[in-house]
Structure formats: C-alpha cells, structure tokens
Write a structure and sequence with these properties.
42% of the residues are buried. The protein is α/β, with parallel strands linked by helices. It is 39% helix and 19% strand.
Length: 223
C-alpha cells in the first residue's frame, strides 16, 4: 500500500460500510497481464510501476519542463506523494491547480477550473479498470473526468492494480458499491458535505496514439 493518509481507504472503510474483500483485492499476475494487453488494444499506453515511489518517478519523467499541468482530486496521487513533489517547486511545470486555488473570486475561480481541464497534461486517478480494457471514473461535478474524453492534451492516469475487476459491468458496480461510499465518507469529513455520482466517463478507445498513458501500480492505492 502507498503512504496512508487520513483519507486513505483503510481509515474510511468502517464509516463507509464497504466490502474490501470483494472490491479491493489485487489480482494475479496472469490477470494483470491480460488486462494490460486489453488496455493497449484500445489505444492506451500502459507503463507498469512496482510501487508508489516508482510510479511518482515515472510520472515526473512523462511531463516536460515548462508544461502546463493540472490534476484532478485523487487519493492515489496523494498516496504516491504527488502533491509534495509539486509543492517542492522542483517540477518546473506551470501548475494550474495552484493558479485555480489562488483565485479568491468564486466566479473567476470556476472559470479557471473549467479551462484547466484542457491543460497540456492532466493527471488523474481512476475508480475501476475492467479486464476487457475499459477504464472508468466518476466524480460529482466533472472537474476531474471532464478532461478525460477530449479536453486534455495529454491524460496521465495513475491507478493501483486493486482496481482491476473482470468486466465493465463489474467496474461500474465497483464505483457504486465501493468507490462512491468511500468518497462520500471522505467528502463529509473533509468538507462537511456529502458527495454524489454526478458525471461518469468510460475510456473504451483512444484514437490519438500516445495521448493517454496509464501508470499501473502494483500496489493497492486509492479507491
């Protein structure tokens, strides 16, 4: 497991009432290999990382100096240490997340956030991966998944192998039965308000070679 934080799954399971034995079990090497091949057949590049530290190192190498970068809210990114790296100032990137949060006017901040989904590089987690190759995620407003289908120039997804399930139907069930209750519990603790499944995206095929990269991490990360 990656770095455990206040909002990691292990600290929310009880309040969320979810079943990790059903939805959070790392698959066999055979299933991982099958899933990777299925994803690649859908036009998505896959890079495998042995652990969270390697995942962060790979992520850093994928983004050039000076690039415009935005990230979606992601427990996985927190667990691999992405926020600390960006805050260190070592990246040399133009961090749009910092630009958005620095704006105090609500209307202007909303406009900046809307534009940020079209960043050169958008970094995100995901909620589920089907062995058949589809990658799925949901959020409340679309501020994360809005970048996925088309808006972002390059989309980099960092996902633990614990999110692999047999089928697309199982992926959507995982979101409803596991990911969402945990995110709802997190939102209540972090913001004092519930979450909801508002916008969902399924990546089934990418025609632009190299636009989407999945860093598949051989650890249980996020939810």
């Amino acid at each position: 497991m990656g770095r455990v934080t206040e909002f990691s799954a292990v600290n929310l399971i009880a309040s969320a009432g979810v079943d990790p034995e059903k939805w959070n079990i790392p698959p066999s090497n055979e299933i991982i290999e099958q899933t990777v091949n299925s994803i690649r057949e859908r036009g998505i590049r896959v890079i495998q990382a042995g652990n969270r530290n390697e995942a962060l190192e790979l992520l850093i190498t994928l983004i050039p100096y000076g690039a415009e970068v935005m990230n979606g809210s992601s427990t996985t990114l927190i667990e691999i240490g992405y926020p600390e790296y960006v805050l260190s100032g070592r990246s040399g990137w133009k961090d749009l997340h910092d630009v958005v949060t620095a704006e105090n006017d609500d209307t202007k901040r909303a406009e900046l956030r809307r534009k940020s989904v079209a960043a050169d590089y958008f970094i995100s987690g995901a909620n589920a991966i089907a062995q058949t190759g589809e990658i799925a995620a949901c959020d409340k407003t679309g501020s994360r998944v809005g970048a996925w289908p088309f808006a972002a120039g390059n989309l980099i997804l960092v996902v633990g192998i614990n999110k692999i399930v047999p089928t697309l139907d199982a992926a959507l069930r995982r979101i409803r039965e596991y990911s969402f209750p945990l995110e709802d519990a997190r939102a209540k603790k972090a913001y004092g308000t519930p979450s909801r499944i508002g916008k969902c995206v399924i990546l089934a095929y990418e025609k632009n070679e190299g636009r989407i990269t999945l860093i598949l991490v051989h650890e249980a990360l996020g939810y």
